[in-house]
Amino acid sequence: MNKPHLKWTETGNKQVFDCKIFSVNESYCKSPAGNEPQTFTVIDAKDWAIVVPVIETPKGKQFLMVWQWRHGSKCLSLEFPGGVFEPGENPEQAAARELYEETGYKPQKIKKIGEFSPNPAIMSNKVHFFLAEDLIDTGKQELDEDEYVEIALMDEKEVIQGMGKPPFVHALMGTALALYNQESLQKE
Amino acid sequence: MNKPHLKWTETGNKQVFDCKIFSVNESYCKSPAGNEPQTFTVIDAKDWAIVVPVIETPKGKQFLMVWQWRHGSKCLSLEFPGGVFEPGENPEQAAARELYEETGYKPQKIKKIGEFSPNPAIMSNKVHFFLAEDLIDTGKQELDEDEYVEIALMDEKEVIQGMGKPPFVHALMGTALALYNQESLQKE
User: Fold this and answer.
1) pLDDT band at A1 (very low <50, low <70, confident <90, very high)
2) pLDDT at position B2 over 90
3) What does the pLDDT look like over B16-60, one tens digit per residue?
4) Residue pair B179/B129 in contact by the 8 Å Cβ criterion
5) Rounded-to-integer distance, Cα A28 and Cα A22, Å
């Protein structure tokens, strides 16, 4: 994987935009051929966690998911729970906290199943994926004021078959499923 | 899926940043409870295509993938081919063109297998996924000047097992695999 003929080298960078969710930075990089630096634009945001919460039921496995309005796509989206890390948290803690806040469920088992760049072309942050099992329902979400999240128990099969069509519109939920499948294959 | 108690309503918006790859816009939205509008920050970029090119070989299925340097993650990444739509192209044309430019392979069969928001929380664009089969190798990539992309034929199993660990760092390649698995299940 050491391919120096493909490697670019950063010669400098500059922040060009900032808001509370992310900043935008110009990265000036020399090509592998060593030509004059080109400008690449990079979005810096916090790392976050996505959790696949699995519940065993008499009729098979179910996923605990959440309905919420998404302001980028301007539509309702049915997703696995998740959210950004808070200062001082490790990824597992962030995953368990977000799961609890959005759904009211606490996991007795939580395991990291993978880590990705959400979009390595233009984003510098990482998204961490977890499998949560043996869930205890406290019966109470911990939502912020003016936060609207509705939980849904979905059959595993319906989610696997539905990905890529509304309401399963969030690409990173597909990523989560690929890792869930990978984990299931390893158990077999 | 009609959940008016979760729906936010945009009351206005304003562009606050622009570069050649994307713009950033503030979207002012009233909550489902009708409270004073809050500000959400949204990244607008072009739609793009990701192509899963499959080659049948005597030792099983292989994926045609590409190595390239990614400036967001500042690392090498092994990915399915893809890229943004050019004006006037439909998604299938964009997918086939990007596949050819990056790899030199032309598909005789190309089929859309799903469509997602790459990140509906903060991005407004869409990413379209395709399965490409019956590939013809022209033996020649069509890269831009100072563009560095190296092709690799990877065993299906190695990619499925490797997702979420370097060099398979791009989350949307996991999404592509989830759709590829969905497609394979439908064929069975």
Assistant:
1) low
2) no
3) 999 989 999 999 999 999 989 999 999 999 999 999 999 999 999
4) yes
5) 19
Beta carbons of B32 and A171 less than 8 Å apart: no
Q: What are phi and psi of B97, to 5 degrees?
A: -65, -45
Give the minimum alpha-carbon distance from A110 to chain B in angstroms, rounded to a whole number. Answer: 17
Cis (ω within 30 of 0) for the bond into B37?
Answer: no
pLDDT computed for residue B88 by the predictor: 94
Minimum CA–CA partner of A43 in chain B: B72
Would you tell me how many other CB atoms lie within 10 Å of the CB of residue A49? 28
Q: Residue B8 is nearest to which of A69, A121, A185, comparing CB atoms?
A: A69
- Cα B182 to the center of its chain, rounded Å: 17
Check CB contact under 8 Å for A72 and B115: no
**What is the DSSP track for A103-155?**
HSEEEEEEEEEEEEBS-TTTB---EEEEEEEEEEE-S---PPTT---EEEEEE
Distance from CA of B188 to the nearest CA of A (A): 13
- Taking alpha carbons only, the member of B156, B39, B105 closest to residue A146 is B39
Of A42, A165, A179, the CB nearest to B174: A179
pLDDT tens across B112-155, in order?
999 999 999 999 999 999 999 999 999 999 998 888 999 999 99
Interface size, chain A vs chain B, as Cβ–Cβ contacts under 8 Å? 230
Question: Which of B35, B69, B120 minimises the CB distance to A72?
Answer: B120
